[in-house]
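So, can you check what follows?
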Amino acid sequence: MTVAFTDRELDVMAVLWEHGPSTVAEVRDALDDALAYTTVLTVLRTLEEKGHVGHEEVGRAYRYHALVARETAGRSALRHMVGKLFGGSPELLLTQLVSERGLPPDSLRRMRELLDERLAERGREPESTRGAGRAPKRGARGRREGER
C-alpha cells in the first residue's frame, strides 16, 4: 500500500497517532499551528476520502481515528524518499546517514547492530564480526591462510 501525505495531512495524522481517536476540536488544539476549525475538518475529510482516516459518531461530534499505522506510513515515505532522492539506492541513504557528523557513537553502534541482526536473519555472518579489526591469520611461512 502506498501512503502519501502532504505536510498538513502528516501534522493531523501525527495527532491521531499520538492521541488516538479525536474530535476536530481536539485535533485543532493539539496542532502547533493555529488553524481554523474548518481547515482541520477539511484535512480530516480529505484523509477520510483517501482511506487513511475513519470516524465514529459520538453524540453530535465525530471522533476521527487513523486507519493507517505510523509504521506503514513511515515505510511508504522512506521508499518514496529513497526512490526520489537516492536513485533507488538504500546504500546511498545509509551512506548519508552515517556520514552525518553530528551522529553520536551510540547511534552508529545501534545501526551496526541492526545491520548485523538483519544479516544474521538471512543466514550470513555479520561483517562487523568477521575479522573486524584483526590482521589476516598467517601460516608458518608468513603467508595468509589460503595463499600458496
